[in-house]
Design brief:
Strand content: 5-15%
InterPro entries: DEAD/DEAH_box_helicase_dom, Hel308-like_dom4, Hel308_SKI2-like, Helicase_ATP-bd, Helicase_C-like, Helicase_Hel308, P-loop_NTPase, WH_DNA-bd_sf
Radius of gyration: 26 Å
Number of domains: 4
Largest sheet: 8 strands, mixed
Enzyme class: isomerase
CATH architecture of the largest domain: 3-Layer(aba) Sandwich
Catalytic activity: Couples ATP hydrolysis with the unwinding of duplex DNA by translocating in the 3'-5' direction; ATP + H2O = ADP + phosphate + H(+)
Structural class: alpha/beta
Number of strands: 19
CATH class of the largest domain: Alpha Beta
Distance between the termini: 52 Å
CATH superfamily of the largest domain: P-loop containing nucleotide triphosphate hydrolases
Family: Belongs to the helicase family. Hel308 subfamily.
Strand order of the largest sheet: 10-9-8-17-14-11-13-12
CATH topology of the largest domain: Rossmann fold
Function: DNA-dependent ATPase and 3'-5' DNA helicase that may be involved in repair of stalled replication forks.
Length: 639
C-alpha cells in the first residue's frame, strides 16, 4: 500500500515522500484496513520503530475535526510536537503543565499534544475545546498499568468517551500480553504484530560470548579484570566498544543515576568517538558539577541521561544522539519510555533495581522497551540487544526476559489515593451527584472492564466517607456535592490528601504569632504533601536536618513530636530548606554540592513548589484566610 493511495492532500503526500515514506509498513497497512483513516477505532500493539507515529498522524489528519495526542511524558510531548509541527498546513499546540495553560488558545489548533494529566485537568475545569474533539490518540497506552499515571489515563479516556460519544480513539502500545482486553474496552479493532523494519536479535552475555535467540553468537574480548574491576561493567565496556568500532551507536542501561555517570566515566577512558565541539556546546548550557562531568564525557563521544540532569542537558543528549554526534548514552531505564533514541546495540548491564526495601527484577515489559531501541531504520541492517549476565544467571535471563512475553496490562485504579482523587473530580466537575452516578461514570473505566463483578457503589461509598472526613465532599440526604474546599482542591489539580494537608497547614498558620510565619512556614506546608516529590535524605545529613528543624521549630506548622512518620516530615523539611535557600539566591551548583541532589531535581522541586504554593493561595481564598507568604515565596521561586 502506497502513501499516495491514502486520503491525504497532495502537500501531505509530498511531505511524506520527501521523508522517504512511500510504501506503508505491514502494521500501518493493517491499521488502514482496520479503518484508521475512516474514523475507526484502533489499538495498535506493535514494536518500537514499526510505524506507530504514522498511524497516529493518519488518524488525526483524516479526522473530521480537531485531534488530541495524549502522551505520558513531557519529553515525549516536545518530541511529538516538533514532529507534527512539520506537517504542511497543520496547526499544532502543546500543553504539558498540570496546572497552567491558555485553554482558549488550545482550541484554535488542528492537533493538540498534551500529557494525560493536562487533559484530565482540562476536563475538570470544563475546557470548551474538549467537546469539539473528533479524534484522540493515546501513546504508550500500556501505561494504564502504571501506578499513579495509569488511573488518570483510564478515567480520562472513560470521561472523553462520555463527553464525545462519536469520538475516534486510536491507542498505541508496546507488545503486551493482553492487548485484546484493551481493544475490547475501547471497542476498537486490534492490530497486533511483531514486525519490525530492522530485525532484532536478543541475547545474553556470559564468559566472553553472547548467545542470541536466533541461534547465532558473538565473541567478545574482555580484558582481564583486576581485583577492583567489576566484571559486568568491563563486559559492558567491551560490548559498547565493539558496536562503536563497527560504525554503530550504543545505549547502555544501568540501574541508577550514579551507575550511569560512573559507566560514562569508564567509557570516556576509551575515547570511542571524539566530539570536542559537542563538549563545548554542553558547557554553554550552564555550570554544575554534573553538567561539567557530562561535557567532559561528551568530548569522547559518551553521554549519560537520567532524571537528575537539568532538562536542557537531557534534551541536548537526546538530540546529539539522534544527530549521530554522540556514540553512546549510559542511561537509567526511563530513557526507554517513549523517547526516540534508536541505537544499533542496546546493552542492559543491570536487570535488577532497588525498590526501597530490596533489589527486585525489572519488569519484562521495561526490558523489552529497552531492547526495542536497538536497530536504527535506514542506518542499521539489524539491531542487537544484550543482557549482561554470567554462567550462573545466563539461563535464567533467557527464560525471564529473552523468550518471555511481556506482562499483561492490569488497571491500578483501585489505589486508594487514585480513588479519592477521581471520586472528588467526578463530583466537583458536575459529572455525578450520587453514589450511583459516580459508580456509573466509573463503570466505563478499564478497571470495571477487567472486574465486571466489582461492587462499584460500595467502593465509592467508602471513598466518599473519607472525603467527607477531609471536608472535601458533602453527602447530605444522599446527594453528593463538593465543598468549597473540595471544588478548589480539584480545580487546582492537587490530590485530596495534599489539599487536606494544605488546609490543615493554613489553619495552623492562623493560630501562629505573626513573627513566626515566614517563607519557611509556607514551604514546609507544601513540601509536606504527597504531590511534592520525595528528596533523598542520607544518613549523614539526618542529624543536620534534625538540628535545622529544631532551630526553626516555631516557624513550622507541624510540631516535631507530632510528625508521623517523622522520617517523611524530616525529608519534607530538607526539601523546604533547599527551596528556601534557592529563594535567597543560592544557585543550583551550590545546592547540588550541599545537599547531594541532582540539578534536575532542583528544577523539578522548584516547579512543583510554584504549583503547590499557587494551590495553597487558592485554598486560602476558599477558607477566607490570607497567608501572603504563599504568594511571596512563589514569586521568589521564579527565575
Amino acid at each position: 500500500m502506497r502513501v499516495r493511495d491514502l486520503p491525504l492532500s497532495a502537500a501531505l503526500v509530498s511531505h511524506y515522500e520527501s521523508d522517504g515514506i512511500e510504501e506503508l509498513y505491514p502494521p500501518q497497512a493493517a491499521a488502514v484496513e482496520a479503518g484508521v483513516a475512516e474514523g475507526g477505532r484502533v489499538v495498535a500493539a506493535i514494536p518500537t520503530a514499526s510505524g506507530k507515529t504514522f498511524i497516529a498522524e493518519l488518524a488525526m489528519l483524516t479526522a473530521d475535526g480537531p485531534a488530541l495526542y495524549i502522551v505520558p511524558l513531557r519529553a515525549l510531548a516536545r518530541e511529538k510536537y516538533e514532529t507534527f509541527d512539520r506537517l504542511p498546513g497543520v496547526s499544532v499546540g502543546i500543553s504539558t503543565g498540570d496546572f497552567d495553560a491558555d485553554e482558549a488558545a488550545l482550541g484554535d489548533h488542528d492537533i493538540v499534544v498534551a500529557t494525560s494529566e493536562k487533559v484530565d485537568s482540562a476536563i475538570r475545569n470544563g475546557a470548551p475545546w474538549v467537546e469539539r474533539l473528533a479524534c484522540v490518540v493515546v501513546d504508550e497506552v500500556h501505561l494504564l498499568g502504571a501506578p499513579g499515571r495509569g488511573p488518570t489515563l483510564e478515567v480520562t479516556l472513560a470521561t472523553l468517551q462520555r463527553r464525545v460519544p462519536d469520538l475516534q480513539l486510536v491507542a498505541l502500545s508496546a507488545t503486551v500480553d493482553n492487548p485484546e482486553v484493551i481493544a475490547d474496552w475501547l471497542d476498537a479493532a486490534l492490530v497486533e504484530s511483531t514486525w519490525r523494519p530492522v530485525s532484532l536479535r536478543t541475547g545474553v552475555y556470559a564468559d566472553e560470548t553472547v548467545e542470541f535467540d536466533d541461534g547465532t553468537d558473538l565473541d567478545v574480548v574482555v580484558p582481564p579484570t583486576g581485583p577492583n574491576d567489576d566484571e559486568a561493567t568491563e563486559a559492558t565496556v567491551a560490548l559498547v566498544e565493539d558496536a562503536v568500532e563497527t560504525g554503530g551507536q550504543c545505549l547502555a542501561f544501568v540501574r541508577s543515576r550514579r551507575e550511569a555517570e560512573a559507566l560514562a566515566d569508564r567509557l570516556a577512558d576509551e575515547d570511542l568517538s571524539p566530539a570536542p565541539a559537542l563538549g563545548d556546546e554542553l558547557d554553554e548550557l550552564g555550570g554544575t558539577a554534573t553538567g561539567r562531568q557530562l561535557s567532559e564525557c561528551a568530548r569522547t563521544g559518551v553521554g549519560f541521561h537520567h532524571a537528575g540532569l537539568r532538562s536542557a542537558h537531557r534534551v541536548a543528549v537526546e538530540n546529539a544522539f539522534r544527530d549521530r554526534r554522540l556514540a553512546v548514552i549510559c542511561a537509567t531505564p526511563t530513557l526507554a519510555a517513549g523517547v526516540n533514541v534508536p541505537a544499533r546495540r542496546v546493552v542492559i548491564r543491570d536487570q535488577k533495581r532497588y525498590t526501597g526495601d530490596s533489589m527486585a527484577w525489572i519488569p519484562v515489559l521495561d526490558v523489552h522497551q529497552m531492547c526495542g531501541r536497538a536497530g536504527r531504520p535506514h542506518l542499521d541492517p539489524f539491531g542487537e540487544a544484550v543482557l549482561v549476565g554470567d554462567a550462573d544467571t545466563k539461563a535464567e535471563l533467557f527464560d525471564r526476559y529473552v523468550t518471555a512475553d511481556a506482562e499483561a496490562v492490569d488497571s491500578q485504579f483501585d489505589d486508594p489515593e487514585a480513588l479519592r482523587t477521581h471520586v472528588l473530580s467526578v463530583v466537583a466537575s458536575g459529572f455525578a451527584d450520587s453514589l450511583d452516578g459516580v459508580a456509573d461514570v466509573f463503570s466505563a473505566t478499564y478497571y470495571a472492564h477487567q472486574n465486571p463483578s466489582v461492587d462499584l457503589v460500595g467502593l465509592v461509598a467508602d471513598v466518599v466517607s473519607e472525603l467527607e472526613a477531609m471536608e472535601l465532599l458533602d453527602a447530605t440526604e444522599g446527594t453528593l456535592s463538593a465543598t468549597t474546599l473540595g471544588a478548589q482542591t480539584s480545580r487546582q489539580y492537587v490530590s485530596p490528601t495534599t489539599g487536606a494537608r494544605i488546609v490543615s497547614g493554613i489553619r495552623a498558620i492562623e493560630t501562629m504569632a505573626d513573627e513566626h510565619v515566614t517563607a519557611r512556614t509556607a514551604l514546609e506546608v507544601v513540601c509536606d504533601t504527597p504531590d511534592m516529590h520525595d528528596t533523598y535524605l542520607g544518613n549523614r545529613e539526618r542529624a543536620l536536618m534534625y538540628q535545622y528543624a529544631r532551630s526553626h521549630a516555631a516557624e513550622f506548622t507541624t510540631a516535631m513530636h507530632d510528625a508521623d512518620p517523622f522520617e517523611e516530615w524530616l525529608t519534607a523539611v530538607k526539601t523546604a530548606r533547599i527551596l528556601h535557600e534557592w529563594t535567597e539566591g543560592s544557585d543550583i551548583e551550590e545546592l547540588v554540592e550541599r545537599y547531594r541532589i541532582g540539578p534536575g531535581d532542583v528544577e523539578s522541586r522548584v516547579e512543583r513548589a510554584e504549583w503547590l504554593l499557587g494551590a495553597a493561595d487558592a485554598l486560602c481564598a476558599a477558607l477566607d484566610a490570607d497567608v501572603p507568604e504563599f504568594r511571596e515565596v512563589r514569586a521568589l521561586l521564579s527565575p
